[in-house]
Amino acid sequence: MRVIIRKTYEEMSKEATALVKKRLTVKRDLVLGLATGSTPLGLYRELVRMHKEEGFSFKLVRSFNLDEYYGLPPTHEQSYRYFMDTNLFDHLDIDKRNTRVPDGLAPDVEAFCREYEEAIKRVGGIDLQVLGIGGDGHIGFNEPGSSLASRTRLVALDEQTINDNSRFFARREDVPKFAITMGVGTVLEAKEIILLVNGEKKAEVLAKAIEGPVTSLISASALQFHPKVSVFLDEPAASALTRTAYYRFSEEAEKKLGREIF
Predict the structure, then answer these.
(1) Which is catalytic among the residues 46, 67, 103, 158?
(2) Among this protein's residues, is 136 annotated catalytic?
(3) Residues 262, 231 contacting (CB under 8 angstroms)
(4) Domain segments of the chain: what residues?
(5) pLDDT tens digits for 154-195?
């Protein structure tokens, strides 16, 4: 696991974008796994800038989103399809037919979840998965207690998640209580993973996820099982880590060797 610490959110976002650009340069039809929330917005802004100012094309890129609220139509301002369109897809030359977000109105949820997994397999799997981390340590909507082998499915949201997300809704009672999410097992099948974390509020849970024991109570801790994870942090998010000196040493070693060290 690579842990890259930068002073500010803007700097960490640019560093993460550089990695995405590097992978896209090698494989223009990269399959991206994408996340929503405030944390990846810096990355998405940089990708849009890359397209508009550098002429970088996303025409061949395919994407699968981690999750979606169950019960919200794609036109709802708090749906994750709406989020992805307004913050990323509408500003790129990506073919929207190649962008997949779980269907929050799927009439047969189990059938939809099976098909979502099959769709990922049909394109050869996710090449690069972008993740954030919830206040209780979840990735996607894999709440505490989720099986580390879980697949795409319908889940009930934890009270902390509902509280955390209530800031996006007019009233707390408007927050959906269910969501469709990729499972932890699904996420771990991605060939490579980027975890983005910013702010002091996430520092303690982030430290537990990457330096503590692997536990289903913190689904992000399962990333310790993955062979190719890059964690991008700002200094406040890194403030509870105990091995900061080693992470900085390892990054310096990467520069001297001219290669990434996982």
Answers:
(1) 67
(2) yes
(3) no
(4) 2-203+219-235
(5) 999 999 889 888 888 988 988 899 999 999 999 999 999 999
Tell me whether residue 22 is exposed, middle or buried, using C-beta atoms within 10 angstroms of its C-beta: 0 to 12, 13 to 18, 19 or more: exposed
Q: Is 226 a catalytic residue?
A: no
Backbone angles phi, psi at 160, to 5 degrees: -65, -40
Fold exhibited by the domain 2-203+219-235: Rossmann fold (3.40.50)
Q: Which of 46, 68, 117, 143 is catalytic?
A: 143
Q: Which of 15, 103, 138, 158 is catalytic?
A: 138
Q: Which of 11, 136, 189, 235 is catalytic?
A: 136
Q: Does residue 54 carry a catalytic annotation?
A: no
Among positive and negative, which fits the CA dihedral 42, 40, 22, 25?
negative
This model's pTM is above 0.85: yes
Q: How far apart are alpha carbons 206 and 234 in whole angstroms?
A: 12
Residue 189 annotated among the catalytic residues of the structure: no
